[in-house]
Amino acid sequence: MGFGIIKVVNKQMKFIQMNELLLQKYKDPYTKLKLIFERTIELIDTYHPDEIAIEAPFFGKNVQSIVKIGSSAGSGYGSWTITPDTNN
Q: What's the CA gap between 87 and 84, in Å, rounded?
């Protein structure tokens, strides 16, 4: 799972950081969700974003992939909503 951070000032976009969480080595899906959640909190605490976006990939027929992606997105959104002073 990858992420990118940009900063926009006066309609000018500046690259800040991009990276990837290497989750393949973890078999337990709950461990993966925990790591996504913790890293998202860390990024929010570090960069204090005004907005976040989570990719909405398309999976045609694989229902299990849809559920896994939905859980990952939920971890990201959940960490956004519980981080204090983010929206001030």
A: 8
